[in-house]
C-alpha cells in the first residue's frame, strides 16, 4: 500500500524548492564546474556563487594566498565569504536557489562551516565533493593562472579534506563520474538533505 503524507503536510520537491547548497572540496575536485552545471540544469531559477570569483573582485591589492596565507588574505577571504552569504540570502529571499563553492577545512569549523552558516542561515545544505588524490592532481594540472596550485599544496589540502569523513555530511566521490553524473548525484543528495537535514 503506498505511503501518503499526513493531511496538511507539504511534500518537498527538491527540484522545485529554493535551496542554498554549499559545495565543499579541495582544489581540483571540480566544485566550480559541477556547481555551474547543476545551476544551469535546474528547472527553477538557480544562481552559482563562487567564493574564488568574489575574492578576485579585488583587483588592486589582491592578497594571493599562493604567496602565503597572511592577515590580508584572511581578511579578503572573510570579506568575500560575507559578500557571498549576503548574495545567497538575497537570492533566497527572492525565491532563487543558489549553490556556493568553497574549500572549507574540517579542522577550522569556526571560520569554515560556522561562518557560512552565520552568513547564509541555518537552512544551508553542505555537501562535500572529494575525489581521489590522483584525480585532483590531474584536474589541477589542467588549470591555469592563480587557480593552479603546486602538487604539494594540492596534496596537503586534499589530506586535510579527509577529515570530512565521519563528519555526518554527505560526501560524493566523483573520481569516476563526469560532470553530468556528479550533478545528478548532487541532486539526489540535496533531496535527501532537504528531507532529513544533516546535523552540523
TrEMBL record:
Q: Which Pfam families match?
A: AAA_33 (PF13671)
Q: Which InterPro entries match?
A: P-loop_NTPase (IPR027417)
List the SUPFAM superfamilies: P-loop containing nucleoside triphosphate hydrolases
What Gene3D superfamilies does this protein map onto? P-loop containing nucleotide triphosphate hydrolases
**Listed name of the protein:** ATP-binding protein
Q: Which organism is it from?
A: Streptomyces palmae
